[in-house]
Amino acid sequence: MSESAALEIARSIGVGQLISVGEHGLNATFVPFNIVSRADGVVVQAHLNRVNTQWKDDGDALLIVQGPSAHVAGTDLPAERKGQKLPTVPTLNYVTVHFHGRLSYHDDDAWKRAHLEALVEEFEDEWRVGTHSSYKLAEAAFVALVGVELEVARIEGKAKLGQNMSPADIAHTAQHLRQRGSSGEVAALMEEIAVPWAQAREERVTNAKHGHRSLPIDGGLAT
């Protein structure tokens, strides 16, 4: 997926597994986060409880943001056709985003306050500090928190949604997923992302056979 598409999905989910390496090996914590775009790049901000020593793991880290996923049953797929070269088998469709970068920490109240206000704005429709809780009480909790910031070096977005199938077969599978009530969200993503991708792929193949140049695939997915 393109960086912009991956960022949009990660923002819409807002939680992920922060993985880093510390003195005693691998550490992982499931955290809510907010993404900050700056002139010099993207950073992901989160916070940990002070007793969670992962905040001391400055260095290389990975944040995994898991998007929608669904088991695609064999009966969701089109029936096998005479002459096809590979079997039609059940599979898993999914979307995920990986942020690779370096981790650092922030232990000052000004950073924590700005970060928590941004999280509240992102996750809460009505509740606000200053209205439903006092700033004094919120800031009293800062001593138990340490802010962490991932300076993003690389964003990797993956969408496995049946792009190796024909557009008609993807649409067929998405319709069956929706009818079965398994995952309407994954079905919608298949129609939004995988169908156009497969259509563009078929157009490229046709143009190549006839010696025509074709435009690169659009819509957020790399070839």
Automatic annotation (TrEMBL):
<dbReference type="Pfam" id="PF04299">
    <property type="entry name" value="FMN_bind_2"/>
</dbReference>
<dbReference type="InterPro" id="IPR012349">
    <property type="entry name" value="Split_barrel_FMN-bd"/>
</dbReference>
<protein>
    <submittedName>
        <fullName>FMN-binding regulatory protein PaiB</fullName>
    </submittedName>
</protein>
<dbReference type="InterPro" id="IPR007396">
    <property type="entry name" value="TR_PAI2-type"/>
</dbReference>
